[in-house]
Amino acid sequence: MTLEPLIDAPIAIQIHVVAVVPAALLGAYLLVRPKGTPRHRLLGKIWLALMVIVALSSFFIHQINMFYGFSPIHLLSVYTLLSCWGAIVNALKHNIEAHKRIVRSLYFGGVVGAGAFALLPGRIMNEVAFDGDELAPLLVAAGIGVALLWLTSKEMWRRRRLTR
């Protein structure tokens, strides 16, 4: 692992990474911890602020220049901003089911999905995490996928027991 490619990267990428790393960790924590508590609400606000920073900073990243400096991944940034707004509105309206659905899709699509894309060979984060190795990101992605499936299935079983 080396931080050199990230240090040499444009400031927009540095801001993006500085926001997305804690968002990934905090989001995972929020998904598995009790909901509705004051701690959940505070950390959820911090997480949403981080996600907005992630999305906004991405508009200044143009590594994949397909259409005037933008690529399909920027559609995910628009989706992220709209989802953050939807998560807030639904939480304020006490529409908790919609809030949960939006936040989960935002985490798994915006953090996990885009994170997997960022670890592909040829990308800066692949250079940072794996020194450009082509097999390591696939193994890590498989491990993360298994861990996420385990965590979400554990949470689903816990919720089923509570509703019985």
TrEMBL record:
Report the protein name in the record: Putative membrane protein
- This protein's UniProt keywords: Membrane, Transmembrane, Transmembrane helix
Q: Which residues cross the membrane?
A: 12-32, 44-61, 73-92, 104-123, 135-152
Q: Is Transmembrane helix among this UniProt entry's keywords?
A: yes
Q: Which Pfam families match?
A: DUF2306
InterPro entries xref list: DUF2306_membrane
